[in-house]
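Fold this sequence, please.
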Amino acid sequence: MTRACSLACAALILAASILANGPLLAETTVTVTGVAPAAGGDTSPVEKRAFEDALAKAYLLSAIRHVPSSSIPALSAGIGAFVTQRAGKDVIRYKVISKSQSQAAMMVTYDVTIDDEPLKAWLAAEKLSTPVFMRPKVLLAITTRGPRPQERHEWWTQPTPASYSPFEEVMARRLRSSGENVIGPPAQKALSVKTEDWALVLGRQAGADIVVYGLLTHTRPEGTTVNSRLDLFVADVRSNSRLASTSLTLRGSLDVEVMNELVVSAVWEQVRSAIVARTVSFSPASREKTLCIQGMRDNEQYQEILGAIRSLGIVSSVTVSGISGRKLCHTVRTAADLQEVMRGLSQRLAIQADMEVDEDTALLRVLN
């Protein structure tokens, strides 16, 4: 009886000490190595730069858990600005695991724990968590002329099967690598007369949501120099509305293939922003499930278990919900099956434990 009381009291004191510190955040813990160029004298600035490098990697690794693989290139390109804007506000704690230094660089390995709720909100706002199949279908219809007078490419006037022009292929590749849902020219085309809304007609025939259309003209006025003039438009097929438009001229002593790349780079942000504006924000639905822990030896062991739970990429948050007898219970938010959560937890825990799962409730019994 006395032992039962002491165990219950210990659990109550443990829960009270946790709850007294305020609500638990949606933590993610990752192990990362920061690298910074070595400098003579004071090592503090070098260590600071190594931590900043490690923190950027921690954000990236955390974000990768919440986005489809198709969004990883765009994520890698854009997350730096987010990390800078957050300025370390989301760091809950960190621990130095190892440190080494050569003449060239200092390398510091950390366990970094961050509150990833702001990160997930940013991913949703930037539409990076939206998978390809949920993104708008994008059709390209850009006439290309030159550099020789007789050169002209319009897939919608070509015999079937049609294909994108070299310029359209460059843009399609860039868009696809950023996770956009670019479709090819339709197998059947019925555009007999080029009316004012010809691009929207092509978009409807292809089943597209957005059409990027316009005219690119390459000329060689001086024999070696290439002038590239682009007039480009982005339109919403469903609403018959124009989302963006731009015009530019580039000149260079380069071949047409390189000029195509440069022209796409020059209009890239405007085109991509217009598409993203029409993309739905998506986050996998999370459900609340109950996980109770029994038989913990002390707070250190509890923190080890809690850290293992939070390090699972499939768990978005874990908070204390109360005490049930000798068990300390938690509410776990996850889009995954609880069986999957417990399997992942068993692989990360160094302690011996039994696990029981019954639909949306699980018990972790520590074997001391």
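Confidence is low (pLDDT under 50) at residues 1-13, 15-24. Residues 256-277 form the longest helix (22 residues).
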